[in-house]
Write a structure and sequence with these properties.
The structure is a homotetramer of 347-residue chains.
Chain A lengths: L1 E2 L10 H9 L12 H14 L5 E5 L2 H12 L4 E6 L3 H4 L4 H4 L4 E4 L8 H12 L9 E8 L10 H14 L2 E5 L3 H5 L8 H7 L2 E5 L9 E5 L2 H4 L2 H7 L8 H10 L4 H22 L4 E3 L5 E7 H8 L2 E2 L1 E7 L2 E7 L6 H14 L3
Helix pairs in contact in A: 1-12, 2-12, 6-7, 13-15
């Protein structure tokens, strides 16, 4: 069976494993106060070209989202997200469990626009009963989004401008940041992101690490006492150097970006083939997630050799599915998938 | 100035004041362990024709909603409500502050249907990643709704059936229950409600009391330790007999229903006049809230003599507003309002 | 039966009732945006001799404590209180339900000392694992305390100094503030309290009001968006003018202080009698709560005519109890109680 | 430098690393739905000799504690723990952040007794204001405790009996369970623990794993929907098989117990030496944590070659410290430490 079901079905990139193996007989102080974490944090500051960034390492995405949001908001404040946002639909109410409402705004492509944020916030502020409504204070975006789309430089700076102007915080979930920054049409840099966002993270779990997300905080009010927040929410890894070591490996020699680019390139090959056979797409994008709409017959055939994720029924005969590539995707297997698609002809 | 801005702009019905005055020199045990509360609870059980109901008295609606929901759900469980529900849009995230997501379902008339509940719950249960999604467990409805509409007997029993079948809890916010049960087209009784709902409340604040909501709990798992929950959430009134005494007054000689019917009748007169002048309505209903769409010119004239609530702009020249009647609404003033509307001609 | 069980067993002082009756036919805007509340707030600012104070009115003490603390702390921060503090032992975990730890410090007299606060905070800050421990950030004191004792000017200024120096917030629960400020040995003024505390409240429920606590906030970071917090926690009374009107009555012609002084004086009479008969006290104090240790035999006799609260068994033959006076305590009944005590002879 | 500072300063036992390496090229379904987790769960059920146990794998201890407690309690319920309990003193208020009070009972040796639990619960139930006090519902114990002590069979069965009789839940934090079960004077088995506790966990992080705690749930009311709780609290590891694989390795050929016994034996050697030199102990115990009281002079010398943890100053010249052994402790280094202690002579 060949695996396109998600981008976290394999342990980690061999270089990550090698790095962990290399330090496996050393002793370290606990709780990310070690040299691996400080070295990885330094690498991240350098990539972002800013010295004023606080960097912390957490194990997973939901944990990171809930810790960041809980650290950022007062109790009556809410976070704005797309109606497809991970925090809205796929975290079992983790944000609400910290006491905060997620205000969902409609989105076709998984993105939130500066205009949506401005309208929502002004509507709230102009309400004579504003105090009876949760106060929008933070904007949550993901890049790439849950639908594989990415933010352009213009879009991100527009969001940043409206957040600054209205006193909101901007938070980017970067669980798949590598895939976003290496997409063929991307014009954003880590530097842009660190400039625009109050806080964001560089996702490891879905981009070659065993596990781990590197939180980067520019806003000092969020950074203050952030380690208390990590500990309180259960995210303080005893052997924290495991996180630092993985990011050291990923951020050395551009590995993080090389493997993400590889995944995108393999996805592009699949997209090209889908276009050839005239396949409709649930969502057009340029990253490692591909969302074709295929007939039940074709999917039945494909399912014999390839794993993929179900996205929902489109009509009586068609379903949308997701194929996902990763650092681990073998080009030859992509060739097999493309051949299978061509043979099926998009029926 | 004449007041149609809401149904809680006057202190309380004179009979409530008289009752409070009558006991003002007595001493009582604290925290609703007094004879007024037990007597009022007995009256409610009798009206509901069930002896197995737990009755508790709280001060206000948001407090009641958050206490009931927090008492009913485990942390990963969510409450389903209309997208117009008070708990969704007008409680500053009070439910989320207890840790629970509110799942909003689209509603044109402020009501939730049995079919919506069933579809949402089955969609969740059939999701292979169900555990990544907050679990829908309770259905929140209000009667009358935030848009003044009411549930029919058929609708309520259908909701109850689907909740029983799927293991959900049914909760009715009755902040305006009096107005619902005395609407001209109502076919529900308190007995029906006590049969169908796991928990509901009989609202006092908006129906003639100074303050107070009587929570009625049929489901023993919610009733267990409910006084702990009231105390923890800050809703345990030291001089609890103030609540009991008010409900004694309201539930004696049918006062609660008589004053609600009065309000509905006055609202019907306004509705009749609005129909005469061909006025469009934001929402058709039969209770004490009336939602006409009127021109800025007409509203400007009306605003000189009458207060009302703004519901939002409809087009360049029109806004929707709310006129609200209550136990306190003087028929002569309604005549004045109707005359003013007829004079304005619905422009 | 004569009532010494608590100071909230009677409805309200007649002047409060009169004031409410006087406005019972008027209409007001909701949610404490009315003229009664603004007038009462102005009276409070004047009494505190500061114009920079935010004043809000809530219904009860636990509600006030949890709202103030939730509004003041970030999630990882804790509140320090005496081990006898209301927030620690008598609010069903209301503070923890907002997510915050209560750090209890040992106290014989219900008070927290500046030295205790300093030691605890420095111990925390010097811990190499400080981040693994909830961060002490606010000091909760009550005046008078749960044991009827009061803070001296020196003690309060010392607490304020240590809080300022260490970046802590100082919060005074004034549920019984009237009794504290009119105690025979009190040297504090409202002005002192407003100077020393970031936030405090003037309790109405236990000092002559039907219900109501007036929160006074000096620290702008707590004051910001405080109405959102009130609403979210269920404390926003629809007919908020009921609160304002009561405080108008209580703060006119010094009524609040006069009735508190009356209660203290009656308590002094009981204390004097207890001293005469050589009765041991659970706690010495000068306010309206009296804590004698009496024999089961004496208590049995007293219980036939007087109500009081149980504080716990002291030895095989003795229990500590609490007698409470209030605005409502009739001097003749105090004479009866004193006579009964003298007759019993403190056995 | 030789490391006795804690039992989680080295990556993992080589057999764990080997197992992870062996599966590093395989693909697995996410979120612990894989074969490694099911196989490890089966091993645990077999060791506990019960088929009715739910087993889940989490990354760390605080995460596990907060998830278990949040899953077990209704909002007004509290957990009882020793005043030295990890949940009370070393988790940054993580339990309170889920809304629950930790009720600390005094303990000299880190243990909670059945008698303490019974007294506390009966005191609460007999209080006429019981509803004003957080309801004790769960007993949290750790084995070995934070002070290295262990529960005897008699003690655990007594706790279990009182919990069953009073309707309480019993939860054992087994972060160091291996060291407890292999202590020279231990008489408990995993089977006893699974019989007595509603829920417990087998700690991996401190006993040879890279990370990971295996939660074992006997009580179906806690087990229900537990995966929702894990996800909501951020503990659902994407690559969950990493957890299963580690426990497979640890539970094969008794490895978990062999390495724990090794650690205890090395600790015994240090204890023997400390006894030889007449050293006072902060706490006597038989597991891998040793708490000697040593002079500043001796500690200064030791600190040049050995790491250890500070436990606090005892008097002007002495401090208590902790030496910790682990699977990784080299007997030759223990010899060096013992030699150093003998040379210093316990001064």
């Amino acid at each position: 069976m060949y695996y396109f079901n998600n981008d976290y079905n394999a342990m980690c990139h061999p270089a990550v494993m090698d790095r962990m193996y290399a330090i496996s007989r050393q002793h370290f102080p606990g709780y990310s106060t070690d040299s691996c974490c400080s070295s990885a944090a330094a690498l991240i500051r350098k990539l972002c070209r800013r010295e004023d960034l606080a960097v912390h390492f957490l194990v997973g995405g939901t944990q990171t989202n809930l810790t960041v949001i809980a650290a950022s908001l007062r109790p009556h404040q809410a976070v704005i997200g797309a109606d497809t946002a991970h925090v809205q639909v796929h975290e079992t109410g983790a944000i609400e469990a910290t006491g905060h409402k997620v205000i969902a705004v409609p989105s076709k492509d998984g993105k939130v626009t500066a205009r949506q944020v401005e309208q929502l916030v002004l509507l709230h502020r102009n309400d004579s009963d504003a105090e009876h409504i949760a106060q929008p204070k933070m904007v949550y975006i993901s890049n790439s989004t849950e639908l594989g789309t990415i933010y352009t430089k213009d879009e991100l700076y527009a969001l940043s401008e409206v957040c600054n102007r209205l006193g909101l915080l901007l938070f980017m979930d970067g669980a798949r940041l590598g895939y976003a920054l290496t997409a063929s049409d991307n014009d954003l840099t880590l530097e842009d992101i660190a400039t625009c966002c109050d806080v964001f993270y560089i996702g490891g779990t879905k981009v070659g690490a065993m596990f781990g997300e590197a939180v980067v905080i520019r806003n000092p009010s969020i950074a203050e006492d952030f380690r208390y927040m990590i500990k309180q929410r259960g995210g303080m890894l005893a052997k924290g150097w495991l996180l630092g070591a993985q990011f050291e490996a990923l951020l050395t020699d551009d590995l993080y970006f090389r493997i993400a680019r590889h995944a995108n390139e393999q996805a592009d090959r699949i997209r090209y083939t889908l276009a050839q056979i005239g396949c409709r797409m649930l969502m057009e994008n340029t990253t490692n997630q591909i969302f074709p709409i295929l007939s039940d017959d074709v999917l039945k055939v494909l399912a014999e050799r390839f794993t993929f994720a179900e996205m929902g029924r489109i009509d009586e005969f068609h379903r949308a599915v997701r194929f996902c590539t990763s650092w681990d995707t073998d080009p030859q297997i992509v060739t097999s998938l493309c051949d299978a698609l061509l043979a099926a002809g998009g029926k």
